[in-house]
Amino acid sequence: MGLEGETATYFKNAYDQLDDCKIQEDDNEQVLNQMVVWALLAFATARNGTTPLSSSTTTATATITLTPMVRYEQPETLHEIDTSSDPAYASDSMASTLSPGSTASSDDSGEPAAFAEATPADSGHKTVLVTGGAGFVGGAVAEALLARGDDVLIVDEVNDYYDVRVKRASLAALVARYGAARVRIFEGDVADAAFMGALFAAHAPQWIVHMAARAGVRPSIQDPFVYVHSNVLGTTRLLELAARHGCRSFAFASSSSVYGEGAAEVFSEDDAVDAPVSPYAATKKACELMAHTYAHLYGLNVAALRFFTVYGPRGRPDMAPYKFIAAVCAGREIQQYGDGSTSRDYTYIEDIVDGVVRALDRPLGYQVYNLGRGEPTRLSRFIGIVERCVGRAAVIRVCPEQPGDVPRTCADISKARRLLGYEPRVSFEEGIARTVAWYKETYMAEEGLPQQPQQQQEVEQQAAAAAATALMTAAAAKAQALTALPPAAVVVVEPHAPTAMVL
Ligand SMILES: NC(=O)c1ccc[n+]([C@@H]2O[C@H](COP(=O)([O-])OP(=O)(O)OC[C@H]3O[C@@H](n4cnc5c(N)ncnc54)[C@H](O)[C@@H]3O)[C@@H](O)[C@H]2O)c1
């Protein structure tokens, strides 16, 4: 970092403060980077009195290199994992404890539940490419496909958005249950042309369930570029390969977040969704547009599946259902964003998996489907249900509502009912009860102490957030003090390079 003058002193102090706060650990790299950019922007805005993105007199120079959260390896060739010899996939205790969360079927017969069907399913044996198969929904879909007799090729870069041991354990559990011949795992980036090109050249998958993505609204505000990379570039890469290799059915995960803030009471696929309120939502909308283009140009059958807040056993640790259950079980504080009146249409994983598999089996040109329940639950009621299922009162800290979050989601699922025979079965109370049971069985030791690997990470993240808030307060005060100075500074944030400069 090259620094000169008063600007330099300020940012050096800010940077040192970050060092003191110890928030430059790997997991918090994004927080650190974003804080530095915000501080630079706050400073330059104060000096300019207007937008920082204009030219001005150069008085000082500071160049800060920001490191992306994930360093992409670009394998030259196909990187298939030999799960029998790779120690990262050892069938350890975590893998075995994950098994109670099986989502393969909704009854004891091992068969998917049978519903009235509007469209005949292509029910022959399939080899399905499942991207994001190390993740929550992708892993559950892969398991359901394997349970009914299909084979899967799983592609996942196994990134550290959350604990990679959870992801590898989930993959290891699939291999242990169904065998390495039926579950083939390829670690890599779906956006990587060489890697994905080699995979399609070798296997030419005709059936694709594309779940790989950067998920989560708030982190997408901190680092939109990684979202554009995985979600937009990654989906385009797959669509291109799918079209070239004559894929028969391509089902991919979109999101209810595309509906944004101004949406109607009940969200219909016919609503206009051109006003996303987070980079994440914008990438999902972009994926839908690109999918439509490929359907139009090449006759590709693509189902864009707008999931409504998925939860359940093996759920994502960054999402409220998991976080609330983990915190209430441990007697830790939970953060309630807003006054508790916001509501979400929570959908149990088994119902989502059923919808994904139905869409895969019924290629119908380009279709958008809502996959939700159509019954939103208020945040305050949700916390009450968690308290009842855990058997313990929640310690609640009320926090301001978060930017990018929408106040309410509610799916109109009539189209999925009509064309797919989709029918969500699991009530929110039942789903939370099952998730609490899974959580306790998986992570609570005999003494009742939570053993989940995310706990330490959460504590560190909370400390980092507190440090970041302290820094922002300091940055705001300093920026305010500097408004009296003549305009002299300008910030250039280069959109494509992880670099920010004060000139
Ligand atoms: N869980 C929800 O409530 C929810 C709601 C709406 C939409 N979705 C969408 O559903 C899909 C699955 O979500 P999830 O909750 O299982 O998330 P997840 O984070 O558990 O799984 C996503 C997986 O994709 C992998 N991945 C990310 N970028 C990749 C890349 N470039 N190349 C290869 N692998 C990559 C990750 O390593 C991860 O294992 C995502 O597309 C998400 O946006 C989820």
UniProtKB/TrEMBL annotation:
Q: Where is the NAD(P)-binding domain?
A: 129-434
Q: Which organism is it from?
A: Tribonema minus
Region described as Disordered: spans on this chain: 83-120
Its ancestry begins with: Eukaryota, Sar, Stramenopiles, Ochrophyta, PX clade
Name-wise, this protein is: NAD(P)-binding domain-containing protein
Q: Which family does it belong to?
A: Belongs to the NAD(P)-dependent epimerase/dehydratase family.
**What keywords were assigned to this record?**
NAD
- Which residue windows does the record flag with biased composition (Polar residues)? 93-107
InterPro entries xrefs: NAD(P)-bd_dom, NAD(P)-bd_dom_sf
UniProt keyword annotation of NAD present: yes
